[in-house]
Design brief:
Blueprint (H helix, E strand, L loop, with lengths): L3 E6 L2 E8 L4 E5 H4 L5 E4 L11 E3 L1 E6 L12 E6 L13 E2 L9 E8 L7 E13 L12 E5 L14 E4 L2 E6 L10 E6 L4 H11 L3
Length: 209
């Protein structure tokens, strides 16, 4: 949860993200496309300015096959203007190279509201879920997605877009724009293993300049 990022506009939380290394975070295109935003790290409460570290974006890279109308390939990488200093409350995410097995316990963190009527939560949520097969998923069946089922009334919701889904300490997926808000159905997340090469290639290429 110390890799969690709050993406904010005018100091108001709109989306989530995860720290990848000292210069990069990962989120979803809808959160950072054509917006003046900043990234806040080191907090578990939106009102905790004492431990907040704010970073401005230097560069935003969205997957070349991003399709907003279909909400597909929305992975976005953001390079920060300054280095992200790791500390007791800030650390990077390990990228998963394989999707979790069906039935595996997975964990979601985000500041989204607990219902459709709540914009966001001041406290960072930690939600437990189980990995679901594409066959049993109640959403669109795509190879670039990971499917997770949350208990009723406990699913990711508004402003959880871009936040991370974890298996143990590995980041396995990123929340997309279509979330169930605890309506007792499965949610689909953009798979980190599917986009692994894109993430690694983009970061290694851009860091040379």
């Amino acid at each position: 949860m110390f890799s969690a990022v709050s993406i904010q506009v005018n100091k108001i939380h709109i989306c989530g993200g995860s720290i990848l290394n000292i210069r990069w975070i990962i989120t979803i295109a809808e959160c950072v496309r054509d917006r003046d935003f900043e990234m806040v790290m080191g907090i578990q409460n939106q009102q905790d300015e004492k431990n907040a570290f704010r970073h401005k974006p230097l560069e935003v890279i969205i997957h070349c096959n991003y399709d907003q109308s279909q909400a597909t390939n929305g992975i976005a990488l953001v390079r920060t203007t300054n280095s992200i200093k790791h500390s007791w409350n800030i650390r990077h995410s390990n990228l998963a190279v394989e999707v979790p097995p069906v039935g595996a316990k997975i964990r979601f963190t985000g500041w989204g509201g607990e219902s459709k009527n709540e914009t966001f939560s001041n406290k960072l949520k930690i939600l437990n879920a189980k990995s679901v097969s594409h066959t049993n998923c109640q959403g669109r069946i795509d190879p670039h997605n990971v499917c997770a089922h949350f208990p009723k009334d406990m699913g990711p919701c508004n402003a959880d877009i871009g936040s991370g889904l974890f298996h143990f300490e590995d980041l396995v997926a990123v929340a997309g724009p279509k979330l169930s808000c605890g309506e007792n159905r499965s949610d689909e997340f953009a798979s980190i293993p599917y986009y692994y090469d894109f993430i690694r290639t983009t970061i290694s290429t851009c860091d040379k300049f």
